[in-house]
Amino acid sequence: MARHRRALPALVAAGILLAGCGGDAEPDHYTLEATTACLDDEGVRTETNDLDFVASTALGGAVVAHPGGNRVALAFGDSNADAVRTVRAYRTFAGRRIPLQDLLFQERNTVLLWEDPPTPEQAKAVRDCLDG
After folding, report:
1. pLDDT class for 7, splitting at 50, 70, 90?
2. What residues are paired with 73 via a beta bridge?
3. Helix H segments across the chain?
4. What are phi and psi of 104, to 5 degrees?
5. In terms of pTM, does the model score above 0.70?
6. Where along the chain do its domains lie?
7. Residue 11 pLDDT > 60
8. Burial class (CB in 10 A: 0-12, 13-18, 19+), 118
9. Measured between alpha carbons, how far is 62 from 73 in angstroms, rounded to an integer?
10. pLDDT at residue 97 in the model
11. Mean pLDDT taken over the chain
12. Which contacts qualify for 46-55: CB closer than 8 Å, 24 or more apart?
């Protein structure tokens, strides 16, 4: 019985260490506040007064960012299912006349709609801020 009591603190310590691991893990969903703060810190201009109709209805909020001369609307849902609905709404409103395959992307609970196809640098700037 005494050996079990001595083992308990070691198990608790191991559990604390393991719980601390994974601090760099990607979040299960992205937030407007953290992403906007990161974009602002990186010198990417953001605004909320130029949102399209679909983005303006996003449950988690939305922002327009201007990385590297391009424009991207970021619509945040409360879940991945919200993002799927947002993608569906964009596809419905765009119809066949707008080539969304190069402009519309879903990243977990967030939908990105670019004005022009993003360069790798533009896409990286935004994705890095989604990850925090």
Report:
1. very low
2. 64, 113
3. 2-20, 32-41, 53-56, 80-94, 120-130
4. -115, 125
5. yes
6. 27-130
7. no
8. buried
9. 7
10. 80
11. 84
12. 52/113, 53/93, 54/86, 54/89, 54/90, 54/93, 54/113, 55/86, 55/113
